[in-house]
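Bug #2210: token dump truncated for Arginine--tRNA ligase?
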Amino acid sequence: MIRDILKNAIKEAILNLSLETDDIHLEHPSDFAYGDYSTNIAMSLAKQTGRNTKDLAREIVNKILEKKIKEIEKVEIAGGGFINFYLSREFFTQNIKEILKSGEKWGSGNFLKNQKTIIEYTDPNPFKEFHIGHLMSNTIGESISRIIEFSGAEVKRANYQGDVGLHVAKAIWALQRSQHRGSTSVLTRSEVLGNAYAEGVLAYERDEKAKKEIKEINKKIYDKSDDKINLLYENGRKISLERFEEIYKKLETKFDYYFFESETGPLGKELAEKNTGKVFEKSDGAIIFRGKKVGLHTRVFVNSEGLPTYEAKDLALAKIKSERYDYEKSIVITASEQKEYYKVILEAMKQIYPELAKKTKHISHGMLRLPSGKMSSRSGVVITGESLINEVKTRILDKMKNSALADKESVAEQIAVGAIKYSILKQSAGKDIVFDFEKSLSFEGDSGPYLQYASARASSVLERARRQDIKSDIKKATTDTIELEKLLYRFPEIVKRASDEFEPHYITTYSTELAGAFNSFYAMEKIVEESEKAPYKIALTEAFKITIKNGLWLLGIKAPENM
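Reproduced locally. Full output below:
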């Protein structure tokens, strides 16, 4: 990367002046007039050595210029001692050539080569609805998976689902009651399972008799001792999982591993019992981890009825993952409300499986809300992920009612999913999001449809050029460098930063700025024309199309050819 060339040039210049530093900070000036890169190294070293900042900056610049680096056109000293670098016309031309040559690999890296990473995300529970919280986890997890994969790592996607536990017992309790009432649709639709769960939740909270019955069902689910319950359980589980797969297909997600609480539960209980007296302790018939001893809160790992809790199961999950896939890094993505919970899990893991705890990273995300407020699975009023996609799709189709596209339905769904994903990924993962329909569906900036439309516009330009037999060529590059060129070369470093920090929003912000630069270029220039400049303008359009498409792919968003 050009950033590395500049850093090495600065480092060498400093060494030649008998100075040294481990921290060379480079940034892009907010105004292109101040160059392509800027460093405050002279100010930093002047503070350390007591020398005059501008004199030191001048010496560093002279040493750099002595090297006659072909990628650098000029170096200037700005107010306060900043050193600004202006890249050469040749650099920008060669960068366009590199983009065209690299194609779908443009922006990828190998700095994570040979690293095996398993990423767990989405985690919907059978017998419950796939709600907008799962949509958020899936969007962030899929994007991070693609970014890390694009950086050279081998990535395995994992999905961990609660197919046993009180929530299942609550749903089955209600399903049994439905059977007694003569309902015939109990095991045909996933929505019925969600409604049954909501009914079971209310009964568990309000009716002591129902609560006792649900607890008994829960035990029978674990020990598989009741044939009728087993049948309801197996059928309900199958319906839920099949429904989830339909949603994953819409979201362009495919998991490599599926883990279930029914398999982690027995091992979790065993680990808690085996380590009682060392890591865990008994309390009122339960097995607990006394987190207060290490500044955390205390949690139950096996309850007083002898059943493993979420905590025990999550501990076992780490071990089962490592046996299924020999990873160097395990990333777990959950809602931020589980942040403190996961600190306890990692602390317990550290004491039992220290090597696995070192490899595990927890990433938390905020909540996704609609202007109408927060969803509630307790009342049965759940905003499902699919209902949100369908609502956005309906609004998109309304905007497209005069379109002559043959595959309007398919494109509308791609735009709808893109709009939702962009809204989730445009800010750092830890923040809550209120989904704004108007802004999210806008074709005029800061939205998924805006990026997709810019990509489709570039496709249209390239198609017109193809029909007129104008081929892309970099030989006749323009003398002046335009904003679009000054952004295109940054893509690989944006990807690296997103990978290093597990933050897709860097790619979202960059892609939006890039789309704006292309739209300005499109408005100012006649791209497809009979002139000697046309081949380079086509090359520039093609380079933009490759970059925006790769950026959208990293966000998990499709780039329709026509809109």
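Output looks complete on our side. The CA atoms of residues 387 and 546 lie 32 Å apart. Marking as cannot-reproduce; reopen if the truncation happens again.
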